[in-house]
Specification:
6 helices; 23% helix; five-stranded antiparallel β-sheet; single chain; BURP_dom; BURP domain-containing protein 5-like; seven-stranded antiparallel β-sheet; alpha+beta; BURP
């Protein structure tokens, strides 16, 4: 389970090794999902969000050009401008309303008929690599489509959201664990990329380059399901 230290594991390992009582070495980053606040949609839509307007954006937020923050913002905008992959639909939601609208459109239902899965660790105070004891067998979250939304580095909340047209390419599980040293309780969201090509592009294959890998989502990363 060397891969588990980096939060990586195969689907077979998920089924065979993640049983109640099993101890696994895992690193969970202690990431605060509330660092960047959401702006109202009307305000967010009025702010430029493109590489061509980067200088104007930096001036608006009083960010020094060439600083690490400016570089992170530039990287975020560029990723948002990348063309989607084959069979992928994507957007960068600059407001909560925009994210909900994208998710509702993906499922073709109202917001009240969707929910999100994420990793929660309400008692975790510091990030550390330690052994975690699995409390119960992983539970698969069934949904005809899964929409992943990842928080991006920016002065206000920006989520990179995407989904694949072929829902069979992604499987989602919830795993409950407790830290051996800190006794931190973690309810982790695990995502398995079943398509070998997509997994290879994400560098999520095993050492033989064949078996698609699974990984844990950090707190703040969302998986929307129906």
């Amino acid at each position: 389970m060397e891969n588990a230290k980096g939060g990586l594991f195969t689907v077979d390992e998920l089924h065979n090794n993640f049983h109640a009582g099993k101890m696994l070495p895992i690193f969970f980053p202690n990431k605060d999902p509330a660092t960047s606040p959401f702006l109202p949609k009307k305000v967010a839509d009025s702010i430029p969000f493109s590489s061509s307007k980067l200088a104007e954006i930096l001036q608006l937020f009083s960010i020094p050009p060439g600083s690490s923050v400016a570089k992170s913002m530039e990287d975020t905008i560029k990723k948002c401008e990348y063309a989607p992959g084959k069979g992928e639909t994507k957007t960068c939601a600059t407001s909560l309303e925009s994210m909900v609208d994208f998710v509702s459109g993906a499922f073709k239902v109202g917001p009240q008929d969707t929910r999100f899965i994420t990793t929660t660790h309400p008692t975790m105070s510091t990030a550390s690599l330690q052994n975690y004891r699995v409390l119960e067998a992983p539970k698969e979250i069934k949904s005809f489509r899964k929409v992943a939304c990842h928080p991006m580095p920016y002065p206000y909340a920006v989520f990179f959201c995407h989904y694949d047209e072929d829902s069979s390419e992604t499987r989602v599980f919830k795993v409950s664990m407790v830290g051996e040293n800190t006794k931190d309780k973690v309810d982790a969201a695990a995502v398995c990329h079943m398509d070998s090509t997509s997994a290879a592009l994400l560098n999520l294959t095993d050492k033989h380059g064949k078996s698609p890998m699974c990984h844990f989502f950090s707190a703040g990363d969302l998986i929307w399901v129906q």
